[in-house]
Amino acid sequence: MLAFGPLDRRLDTRKWIAIGGTSAIILLLAVLALFSHLPSSLHGLLLRLQ
C-alpha cells in the first residue's frame, strides 16, 4: 500500500496501479484461502519443497 504513491508519481497512472494492487491482494487472499484447507500431508510436502 505504501508503494502506491511513489508508483503513481513515477508511472503517471493511478488507474492501473490500483487495478494491479487490487489484483495482487485478491491473488494473495486466494492463495491463503487455498492453503488453509489443504490436507496435512500436502502441507508437509509443500514445506519440504521450500
TrEMBL record:
The chain crosses the membrane at residues 16-38. This is Uncharacterized protein. Keywords: Membrane, Transmembrane, Transmembrane helix.
